[in-house]
Amino acid sequence: MDDWDRETILRKPKARPAVIRNQSELNAAARQGAILETHRALNVANKAHHVDTDHRRIAHLDRSDDVKPPEKVTLSVSQAMRKARADKGWSQKELATKVNEKESTIKDYESGHAIPVQQILVKIERLLGVKLQGKKDIGAPLPPRGGGKNKAEGTK
């Protein structure tokens, strides 16, 4: 026999469950002894998927939540920035150039309209040498970097 004439079956199709759409088909399947499984389709019309959720509570939360605007730079931070910049004799444009930010960003920080970004505040803190983050001591000089003992002293 030639290989071209032989039929090769790679896999047999799986039996699919039949979908019964009316009562007479259901009764006929039951008489034949077929295994029956019933479930109700979930759709918006029968609202079966809304059984476990508390939509009133969720809707109330959606209506009652007031969106809090993001916090702006505090007045003490903006005043400390302005004073430290003036002490160094820099303009806003010069400070912006040294921090690699736009001049408008520095203006917003000094006027108190900016939303504080910690990365920018850290850069400004280091350049101006004053503390701009935290709750207290805003405007105080930063401690010297490196902070510990001299490496030449070493350990004993």
Keywords:
40% helix; single chain; 156 residues; mainly alpha; 0% strand; elongated
Describe the structure.
By secondary structure, the chain is an all-alpha fold. It is 40% helix and 0% strand. The protein is built from six helices and no strands. The chain has helices at 23-32, 55-64, 75-88, 92-99, 103-111, 118-128. Helix 4 (92-99) packs across helix 5. The longest helix is centred in the middle third of the chain and has 14 residues, at 75-88. It is elongated, with a radius of gyration of 37 Å. The termini are far apart.
Summarize the structure.
With 156 residues, the protein is an all-alpha fold. The chain is built from 6 helices and no strands.
Major sheet: none
What sequence of helices (H) and strands (E) makes up the elements? HHHHHH
The oligomeric state of the chains shown is single chain
Shape: elongated
Radius of gyration: 37 Å
Helix proportion of residues, in percent? 25-40%
The residue-averaged pLDDT reads: 79
What ranges have pLDDT less than 50 throughout 5 or more consecutive residues? none
What is the number of E strands? 0
The tally of helices reads 6
Structural class: mainly alpha
How far is the N terminus from the C terminus? Answer: 94 Å
Name the beta content range: under 5%
